Protein 1
Amino acid sequence: MSDAPGTTESTPNPTLDVSDLPAFAFGARTPIFWGVVLLMAIETTMLALMVLSYFYVRGNFTSWPPTWAGDRSFHLATVGVALLVVSAVPNHLMAAAAVAGRIKRARTWLIVTTALGAAAFATRVLEFPRLQFRWDTHAYGSAVWGILGLNTFHQVTALAENLVMLALLLIGPVEQKHRHDLELGGYFWYWLIATTVPLYAIVYLEPLVFPR
Amino acid sequence: MTAGMPAPREPDQLREVWERKPGPWGWLTDVNHAHIGRRFVVTAFVFLFLGGIEALIMRIQLARPSAHFVGPDLYNQLFTTHGSTMMFLFAVPVMEGFGVYLVPLMVGTRNAAFPRLNAFAYWTYLIGGLLLYGSFLIHMGPDAGWFAYTPLSGPEFSPGKRTDAWAQMITFTELAALGGAVSIIATIFKQRAPGMALSRMPLFVWAMLVQAFMVVFAMPAVMLASSMLATDRLIGTHFFNPAEGGDSLLWQHLFWFFGHPEVYIIFVPATGMVSAILPAFTRRPVFGYLPLVLSVVSTGFIAFGLWVHHMFATGLPQLGHSFFTAASMMIAVPNGVQIFCWIATLWLGKLRFRVPLLYVLGFVAIFVMGGLTGMMLASVPLDLQVHDSYFVVAHFHYVLIGGAVFPLLGALTYWFPKATGRMLSERAGRWSFGLIFVGFNVAFFPMHLLGLRGMPRRVYSYGAATGWTRLNELATAGAILLAIGLLLLLANMIWAGRRGQRAGDDPWEADGLEWATSSPPPPYGFRDLPIVTSRAPLWSDPQRRARVTGLRTVRPEVLVTTLVDARPDHRSPIAGPSIWPLAAALATAITFIPGMFTAWAIPVGAVASLIALSGWFWPKHPNREWAEEQPAVAPAPESPS
């Protein structure tokens, strides 16, 4: 389409009739897509600053970590991350089904994704008391609880979002725009996985690889 | 419904669909961008006056040596509340308010992209302001400065709940700013009128776009910092406690990583206002559209690389000094380009010396002076001499009042007719401008000298032997003049709101789309959305012949266009009036206000927030026309793709 469709210098009253345009869309075409992207940008910035704070306080320790976070929680944490990474597959299937209009299929895969996410959340719940320190033990403890706490907050938010979507799919009526909502929920779930993996690596693996 | 549908009974049907509900419930559930924007601006001006009263009290205390008008504890609360009010409760929200009001009109759409998010942002902002002032009134006002440095603001040196009130106020105001920013970006990206390619977007819209992105990347830093401070104080974390491996400087880094972009978050929309005002009073488009866009975008980026210049006195490595000095000086380049473009516009134009132009001229003079002292402060050797002195106070008031408040007052005068349908008094406006300009300079110029003569910031008094008395007296006299000028402006607004000369759609004969609708605008923005063929739509198509038809009028609906070229893409339903934004703001309040006293507020508030957000996103029962057009997607049986 030209820059000013339907308008030319010679047209006396140029109008553009948009009544035949669709009433919903997918992917990056919608305002809500950009809302979700911006939300991810905001939360990623917070996580990045939390991680930078972790490394900043590292400079104040002669031996790092004072106690490795993973002494009793490493296996749980690893299982949790693995569950989330695996959930990327049903998440993809869910989003693809939603975009294709196959609601029942999308619902099924949403249940699988959410179940895996809930299991990952359960490991996180068990992980916290198994850390070797509390948030008020030392600055390292504060930083680790801070990182894990923010990530847990995101896990809870994503799970809650999936559960609300699931309730909607079960109760209905499901509108065309909800297919796009499912697609966006899928993006958010990917983001959750994409942030959980490096945070796990920083808390549990970095002290093994770069101890002081 | 297809193109064969009967012509709607516009504009009655449009009005019915877009109007807010009647009565107090209608006020609480309103999501119209113009109403929300106006609320932001009015509330921000209330806080401006409160902050001004605090300033006047401080100036009265400082007018005489060893005065006892207020004691040191109250003085600490005054400068903290003054700074926090001006930065968090006035400057950012007022710019956000102008953005929320004007951007949808300027890009030619019916409402902002996320109407309920805008409403949520307003309620959250209001709650934050009430929290700060409520605390102040019960003698629990924060007193550790508007930037609350640790360890002073930590649990050891600031017992009680004063600093907790400050930290939680931050949460509210930053959530509000983020909400507004997300809505503005989505509106600008996806709802511009057909033909308004990015290269035809108004400069004010560019400025709001840059500002909104800056908010997205800067606000998380202060939210994180204030949350860390809150947890250090409430549950014993050690982020800022050196005894357990934490670091006081971490606070400064996190705060100023937000704090420096913050001042540009305030300044960048003001540059957009200047660019928006100039065409009407120079009768030509602004000179240098492309350099102005590039300048504002590069300012947005460079602003994130300057923050350590607030920390030159903390014992940084030499490389840090050099880098941040260079970066702080570098930002003068795009700012300078903007000033030159505006001067060129004035030089080449036919000037109409109405009040908005006077404020633009005042802005150029005062902001440039502030920018020059900024260059001085960017140099470490000089900064080390005047750090924490009144020289710095003078600098930032020159750049903030010159750079943001002057354009703002010009913008207020310029867009007052659009928002109210009446003109402000030109005569009272000139008097206001004169009093404000003279009063400001008499108040703040002496502070440069006071700083150079050694007067520190944030002292509640000083001895007569310092020799600072005369300049302080002068500054107080100027402050009183400035206050009178602002009060005159307030009186002008109140008077004109009732008795001012009626303004038509376009009293200034301006060029932007916001002047293509009535004053005040109808709840649906435009009767027909425009098609844009130039950067100055009203000057190139004054009869507004080119228009969009076919948007549904039975429900609130907007036209979504492509990001770069604004080609029509699809129609999108948009949220109507809703109570859920207020509910979500109250849930946030339940989380964070009791959260000053007990950590249990967090899980309780989280549940409340979950309920509010579920209500927000749960679909409303669609009406018949809607269901006819978009049949529900049946969950069973399986529909083939």
Protein 2
Amino acid sequence: MDISKLRSLILAAVLALPGAPALADTLAIIVHPSMQNELSADDVRRIYLGKSSQLPNGDAVTPLIVRQPDPAHTEFAQQFLQRSPRQLNTYWAKRLFTGKSRPPVPVQSLREMKAKVAGNKAFIGYVRLSDADPSVRTVVFSTPSS
Amino acid sequence: MNLFSRLLAIAALGLPATAHAAPTIDWNGYGSFLWSRLDDLAAVNGDTDLPYGEFGDLSNTSNESRLALQGELQLNDRLSGVVQLVSRAENDHNVDLEWAYLRWQVNADLTLRAGKLRRNASLHTDSYDIGYSYTGVRPPTSVYFSISPIYEGLNAVDLYYQSALGQYDFSAQLYAGSGEGNAEMLGVRTDYEERLAAGLTLALERDGTTLQFSHLRSDLDIQHPDLDAAYQGLIQMGFDDIARHYDFSDIDSRIFALGASKRLDSWELSAELAHSDFRDTLIPSIKGWNLTATKHFERMSLYAGYGEQSSDVSTRAADDIETLLSGITLPPGAPLPPIVQQLYAMINAVREQADRGRINRYIARVGGRYELDQQTAMKLEVEHIQNQASGKTGMLYSVSVDFVF
């Protein structure tokens, strides 16, 4: 049994525990299953804020973000980037038009995000823990803020 | 063929095998509709040659509206070309190519750009036109009206390095280049040329705290008709040492800027300081600082700030002439020779010019920003400006709608 399937089984078991519904709604970071290096919350923050353009394994990465006003966008921004959606918009506007970096690529839904990450190792994204499956590698942080 | 076209052609010829089959162009843009009115121009400006921002003697209203379109052509995985066309109301809505550069992602940490760029001094210098990117109608006027207008676009090479430094995000931006333009100096619009401009901006960020330091300098050549005439006259009279004060063909100009900001839950605090200096010349040296506190709500932000803008002018030219004259002994009762009369007149002119270049303004501002949607914000701001010398005050009322797309 490969490691990503094992992780999915463990995840399913955890989600079956009492109190798990709240956990199922948690946002988790997803990368392509081929990316097995350790990924920290700080790595995620730096990638999404345009301060790094590569994963820990050295591969180039493009972050994905779900379009506003999806609640998942607000949750992700506050938990992982310590900014409100509005603060993120102003931050990315400055970075884009002063030539420092490009903002994340928007997608229509978390489902689309998962499909893109599963199909291309150059993407990083996030899903609800309950929607995680072996097509992606899921990384959960107990305290996303660094 | 201009510089940008040449660079693009070189890049196209050097495309590696990994180039995209069909290069893609991404289009984005920003704009601001911004109107302001200063209710007492005379009170704020007084007799100084340093008008308050855009508010010169002719008008107490300003339309700083602008619209920009940016296109980025991705040539391959690491190389892209960017152009930014800007149309400004103050320029009769003419469209100018204000940014045009090639960007090469050298590695994960280092980016090289070459072309027409804007310098970065204080926290919002290079993003000044992107009204949507900051809370206020404008960045604090006490700071940004103190950064000389010549520090705008430049033909340059720029290295931008960013990396983790322990638990901090560190960035360094280094540029070198040259440029030319036209700006108001000593009450007159003059042409200038920057023969060598270079600068460094360092920034550290962590947990919502940002610290930024910049040092910029350039060798300036300014063509000011009155001062050029004074220079030639002094040279002809044989006063080379004094003439150097009027030699604007090689001015050492510098900017020093410090910025700090802190996000704490729904609060944001910022502090900025900038100093523009034109070494030992009659061009005023200007300093400005500002403290601002902002409270963010879901769709609205309210802010209040206070700062000061001050300037000073070197009178070394007058001091040197006085020293020269103190060594001249005339017979008692004899009339002053014409040349001595001219030198006394120059002393008076220098001191008058120095007085006209000195200003001290205290500026308090309050304002609010409201998000109309995810890409559009409306802002209102009121500034209270006190001219310290006269004690008179003026109020600046501004309203803007800023957007990105």
Protein 3
Amino acid sequence: MGLFGAIQTSGSGMRVFRTWLDAVSNNIANLSTATRTDEAAFQAQFITANTIEGDGDVGQGVQVAGVVLGSAEGRLVHDPSHPLADEDGMIRMPDMDLSDQMTQLMVAQRGYQANLAVIERVRDAYSQAVQIGRG
Amino acid sequence: MAIPPISAALPALPTVPTTSVGGPGAAAAGTPGFGDQISAALNNLNDLHATADSLAEQAAVGTLEDVHDYTIAATEAAVATELTVAVRNKAVEAFQEIRRMGV
């Protein structure tokens, strides 16, 4: 795995969680993006990840496999005063739950911090190993 | 704040001839000499520092996507430097021990 294998693996984890944070922030920013009823609604973005196989026994982290879009149906909301409303006064709002997005935000943040803790511990362990036999 | 690369400041290290010592030297004829290994380690260290410098530039300009990429590269360069310095200290200690043996 090399001298810095653990640090690179955690770095890949942080990259995936950072992408997840980007996706969640995009979803939350577009919470009120309305579209006409004959168009697709704003689709929530979900990140899928898959593991990176290592040469030996131990895996080498994770990578973003792709972005999966949520439902395009959305919710039909009655709002005749909206500029995009059709003749029935309906607009299409995204079908996203704010509490679900906030939960994803917390999980992504904790995942990012967990990988950060791994890097710090590994760096401390290696620095102490270098001290063996000194003085 | 570019630090000049280490390899520019070093003359090429002489390779230790492996057959000059006899028994253990003949057994180690297939392996690279100690000088070669030190050169390879220093080039590796130089690459780590160069990576960290280029990521620092990207971070300053604002094109860096992942903040942790730069800090991880800086940490790796620091740990590798510590390790190289420890290797050098041990080698110098061993040399001085041998020199103190007396004629």
Protein 4
Amino acid sequence: MTHQIQRRDFLRLAGGVGAAAVIGSSLAACAPPAQGGGDKDALKLGFLTSFTGLEAVLAAAQFQGFELAVNQLNESGGAGGRTISFVKEDDAADSKQTIDKANKLALSDKVNAVVGLVASLEREAALTVLPKAKTPLFYTTYYEGSYLDAHACDPYYVATGQVPNQQIDPLVPWLSDNVGTKYFVVGSDYIWPRGTSIRLKELVDEAGGSIAGEQYFPFGTTDFSQVLREIDSSGADIAWITLAGTDFLTFLTQAHQFGLKAKLVSLGMDDVFAHANPDAAAGVIASQAYFKSIDTPANTAFLDAYSAAYGADAPINAIGVAAYNAVNLIALAVEKADSTDTDTWMAEISSVEFDSPLGKVAVSATNQNTTSANFIGEVQPDGTISILEESDAVEPDLPGCSL
Amino acid sequence: MDVIVSLLLNAAFLVSVVALVALGLGVIYGLLGVINMAHGEFVALGAYAAFLVTSSGVPYWLALILAPLLGMGAGMALQGAILSRLVSRPLDAILVTLGLSLVFQQILQAVFGAVPRTVANPTPGAIDILGATFPIFRLVAILIAVAVIVATILFLARSEFGIVVRAILQNREAASVNGVNAARYSVWAFGLGAALAAIAGALIAPSTNVIPLMGATYLAPAFVAVILGGAGRPSGVLVGVAFMAGLEVLLAPYIGATVARAGVLVLAIIAIRLRPDGLVREKKDRFA
């Protein structure tokens, strides 16, 4: 009666587990296709995001922006008379799961388009399967554009989030004037932080500044104490943070605990993160296409509808507004083409214009990204973001992309 | 100078938290022969206990009592109800705990949601130690963790409970022939291991975010530390933890965090290959 594990037993066990995994996943793939999607008069959308996992903190606002648009459109007759229905799936910010769910939405649920995704790795994964399935992807999160050969140029791909020339170009000169020119870069180790750093470096060089340090961390890093110390001892004016999701929140908590002296600046900061932890987020500089505190009649009307649906306290960010815009753009294109045939309505996507909470939004025919203005803001101790600078709308620039 | 002090303090914090987890895992493995793949979820349970306490307005320190109680309860239930039936089937026990870990994660997610939760820092502010700025709470956490570890080791070495449990490990039948209720002691030992993990979770919570999957971050280094330490002996476990957590903290600034994390695991594999019985040679007791 020993507790030793024999090698033979272990190999048997491993073989059994492996066989079970293979059988299990092939059974799952054989699931019968969902009902619907064959009705010519309805528009069926797929919503895919990280409801669990690294980017879970951003999922609710993104989904609510999407859902609000769907509900509003259906109340006023749908997309040119077509009712909009949707299927939502969770990709857990994982490449494999994104591919599986994207395939399910495109091939099994037969949706007309997929909207959503947060982290760039989800987009890269989804774009390996959705164009093949001729299902357009509407990506709603700000990202790195075409830097580092990102997969961002495809007839079946539309982005309603900002790219670097819209989000970073206005920010660096403002920082030079108001904070400093010595940067320390801390990011998660994947394409978005590394890609945006390339544009950052170009702009910092132009401004005559310097980058004192650059460190990238794997997902799920729970301790940033070492890099916090290095930022302080480098004497950097600005801590440029492109950490993703939960890791960003962890960093903010620890920077607050350690009393970081450098000014925190992040492309990822928005009303959702500020709401998640106002103490830790206070003082952080943000650069986004949208803040809740924007004072225009269009935004007030939008926020009235949003808080009626989800509560006055519910945060909304640029990602959520971009999802709202994406649904409306799809509906306008389908209405104009008077067809749910993908190639027919996608041909109209760059000729329609939508009155978004921030003014007119249109898709560029060159690269199928959208025009966007930019706002620079600072998080206040109560979690709201006060706007410090506003820049006019600019066309998205994706070097090397011409559709 | 402040670089070294800062490095050592940060390493001390990580090492002491992982040591608590590894000690708990080691107690369970060393004394019961069970590799508990659900151990990380006891850590998460402790962290969520801290979240419940602080979000209800109760002072954080109560979490240090609630967490181990919850952990102990969950651990004892797990051992008593399920693992006690798998005493001579360690492979099955691994599978069962692996399955249970998935179930626990989903339960935590269903109850608390997938969105990260924050536990307010009970002692905000940082102090200057030999030129290095260090959060006060981390200092407090190190002291609490060390106290708990020392108390546990002494308890296992000196108390009647510890002696009996070690007897059970050496020879279960002989122990029961001598009147020991092996099943009941196993339940308490498992509860102890789980309680240690839960305290670690409560201690780490204010410095990070509480998410349902957080246990995995602490299970992996604890697991390797226990294997490196050899046969679940407490001193070996601590050496293993120092190796895993300490080496990663010390290497990361020089070779990048991603490479350091992978590199330490590779080194651990090499170490286990060279010393299969663990880094710490076990003293051979002489009975004659």
